[in-house]
Amino acid sequence: MLLANGQKGLAAQAMKELGNLHFHSGNIRSAYKWWSESLDTLLGQKDVITSWRTLFKAGEDISCTLLAKCGLWGCTLGGVIASNIAQ
């Protein structure tokens, strides 16, 4: 419903929380799936974990591009999600 209403940031946060629930219940695979889906939603591209470098042009400042694309909240949420996946 959040995605249908154009609430991309809130949908990504809900997916992150769903991943957290799966992680704490011991279902690591489902947690990874939801965290990955959350990052995909934030950046607007499929399989961002393996193809995130293709979002940027060569020689471009990645931090400024991410900030312009996702905003401060999106960058913070994306960092938290990426750290969850890395753990």
Describe the overall structure.
By secondary structure, the chain is an all-alpha fold. The chain has one domain (8-86). It contains four helices and no strands. Helix 1 runs antiparallel to helix 2 and helix 2 runs antiparallel to helix 4 (62-86). The radius of gyration is 13 Å and the shape is globular. The protein starts with 7 loop residues before the first helix and ends with a helix. The relative contact order is 0.16. The mean pLDDT is 86.
Query: Oligomerization state of this entry?
Result: single chain
Main sheet overview: none
Radius of gyration from the alpha-carbon trace, in angstroms: 13 Å
* Total separate domains: 1
Give keywords.
single chain, 87 residues, mainly alpha, 4 helices, 0% strand, globular
Give a quick precis of the structure:
With 87 residues, the protein is mostly helical. The chain has 4 helices and no strands.
List the helices and strands and how they pair.
Layout: H1 8-24, H2 28-43, H3 48-51, H4 62-86
Helix pairs in contact: 1-2, 1-4, 2-4
